[in-house]
Amino acid sequence: MATQRVAERVRNLIEPVITSMAYELVDVQYVKEARRYILRIFIDRQGGVGLDDCEQVSRAVEPLLDASDPVPEHYYLEVSSPGIDRPLKKAADYERFAGRKVLLKTYAPVDGRRTFRGVLGGLAGDHVVLQADGQEISLPLAGVAQARLDE
Question: In degrees rounded to 5, what are phi and psi of residue 88?
């Protein structure tokens, strides 16, 4: 089963539980590293996330994962904060982190570039607004392959 599909199945399964605990599910990644599979769950909340938060979420989602078995292989579960280079995954993230430095990568070149660094201006319709290189750049949100805070 493709790793993206596994991550999406896990996200759909655990997001209601994580949300009910007053956390935000930032991202789910299912990867193979050094011959082992790792299921990474990234959580956040206002004021930040500590080790106790990660342990609570891990204890809450483990029984769900064991019961529904959405991951075909044996895996290691990691629950953590997204860190200082937090990914921007949802449209709301672009508004929430307006004014912060970001790194964006696009699927296709825009004006000959695929990588953009600058200050996030938020969203204007379906475009991400970025202040970079002394000018305002507008990139289609659908064309953004990856975005993260760049602090």
Answer: -105, 110
Q: Are strands 75-80 and 36-44 parallel, antiparallel or unpaired?
A: parallel
Q: What are the E-state strand segments in 12-134?
A: 24-33, 36-44, 75-80, 101-110, 113-124, 127-132
Residue type, 67: A
**CB neighbours of 120 closer than 8 A, spacing ≥ 6?**
94, 97, 98, 99, 100, 101, 102, 128, 129, 130
Q: Is 55 helix (H, G, I), strand (E, B) or coil?
A: helix
Domain definitions of the chain by residue range: 3-80, 91-149
Per-residue pLDDT tens for 35-84?
999 999 999 998 899 999 999 999 999 999 999 988 888 999 999 999 88
**91-149, CATH topology level:** SH3 type barrels. (2.30.30)
Query: The domain 3-80 is classified under which CATH number: 3.30.300.70, 3.50.50.60, 3.90.226.10, 3.40.50.2300?
Result: 3.30.300.70
